[in-house]
Inverse folding.
């Protein structure tokens, strides 16, 4: 089982001076929109159909690519959402613009909801390949099955295989999930509870992880609470977050130019205007406290702030749940901290 309840203490990025910097970026993605065709229970980035139909502007895209072209160690760039199939034209334009600058384009991530016609899907993927795309990540999971019938996912897989070949498709846990999903009724969706009943497992995140490991962060903290074991805040004492927040791999840049490191949307200290600012506790107290002392340290720090109100929660599904609840409480207490950002991330989470 590999849910992210906590990690071992990791000090490799800590400094004596307490001054930090985001290292040169290596692998990551451009989030072109937060809007999605569905609303998966586990979505870390809190995407949904309810988000505005706002996409990265062409001007922002150009600025982003120009800035990334100056990153000396950049190895891979992918494209993510939200759901990119909601705007194929812009997605293809973004791929072309990135590849034509000589940047290392890798894959797009899609949930395949749009793929109800094989020929049309082949046509889209062919255009993406011609624009410079190398691979496709297709999301297949019990969470996506709640809003996408497997027939569409299968058409997407078939079309992507035709254009890119099987070895250039990325799907998590496909050996287990594809035969299983193929045995279900393909033209309908299944709720998560129905999925658990069909495969004969308890409604437990640990048993679900055998099929699809979940990071217990973002919307998952609330939506999957009934599936999780709850722990007190003290359980997460001594788990700092340096290896996530100062991670040069799997970064994301969002439509507004915010840099998101690790798996931590809603915490951001850098933007495309300056990807490597000097990070100190005076400027970014939440970020630095998390780097040094993790969410339990943030819990202690927040309680020392005079206006901090903390009403209800005493148990959490994960360390990231504790972290998120403290940030929400800081926002609700009216304590303005510029590293709790972008604030739009917290809409409907609060
Ligand atoms: S399909 Fe992806 S982006 Fe959309 S809600 Fe699900 S996990 Fe989030
Ligand atoms: S900073 Fe917060 S969200 Fe990120 S890994 Fe640490 S606890 Fe989780």
């Amino acid at each position: 089982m590999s849910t992210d309840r906590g990690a071992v203490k990791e000090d490799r990025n800590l400094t004596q001076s307490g001054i930090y910097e985001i290292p040169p970026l290596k692998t990551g993605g451009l989030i072109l929109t937060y809007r999605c065709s569905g609303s998966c229970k586990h979505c870390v980035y809190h995407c949904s159909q309810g988000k505005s139909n706002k996409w990265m502007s062409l001007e922002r895209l150009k600025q982003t690519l120009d800035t990334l072209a100056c990153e000396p160690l950049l190895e891979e760039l992918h494209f993510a959402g939200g759901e990119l199939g909601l705007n194929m034209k812009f997605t293809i334009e973004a791929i072309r613009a990135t590849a034509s600058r000589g940047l290392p384009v890798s894959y797009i991530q899609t949930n395949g909801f749009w793929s109800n016609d094989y020929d049309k899907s082949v046509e889209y993927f062919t255009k993406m390949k011609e624009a410079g795309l190398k691979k496709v990540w297709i999301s297949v999971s019990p969470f996506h099955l709640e809003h996408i019938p497997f027939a569409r996912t299968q058409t997407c897989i078939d079309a992507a295989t035709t254009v890119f070949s099987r070895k250039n498709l990325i799907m998590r846990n496909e050996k287990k999930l594809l035969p299983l999903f193929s045995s279900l009724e393909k033209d309908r969706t299944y709720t998560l509870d129905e999925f658990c009943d069909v495969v004969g497992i308890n409604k437990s995140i640990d048993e679900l992880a055998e099929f699809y490991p979940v990071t217990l962060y973002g919307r998952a903290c609330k939506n999957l609470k009934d599936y999780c074991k709850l722990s007190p805040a003290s359980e997460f004492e001594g788990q700092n977050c340096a290896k996530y927040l100062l991670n040069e791999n799997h970064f994301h840049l969002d439509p507004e130019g915010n840099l998101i490191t690790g798996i931590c949307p809603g915490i951001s200290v850098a933007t495309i205007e300056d990807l490597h600012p000097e990070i100190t506790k005076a400027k970014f107290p939440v970020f630095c406290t998390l780097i040094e002392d993790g969410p339990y340290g943030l819990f202690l720090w927040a309680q020392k702030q005079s206006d901090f109100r903390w009403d209800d929660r005493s148990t959490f599904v994960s360390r990231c749940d504790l972290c998120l609840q403290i940030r929400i409480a800081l926002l609700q207490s009216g304590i303005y901290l510029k590293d709790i950002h972008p604030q739009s991330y917290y809409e409907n989470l609060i």
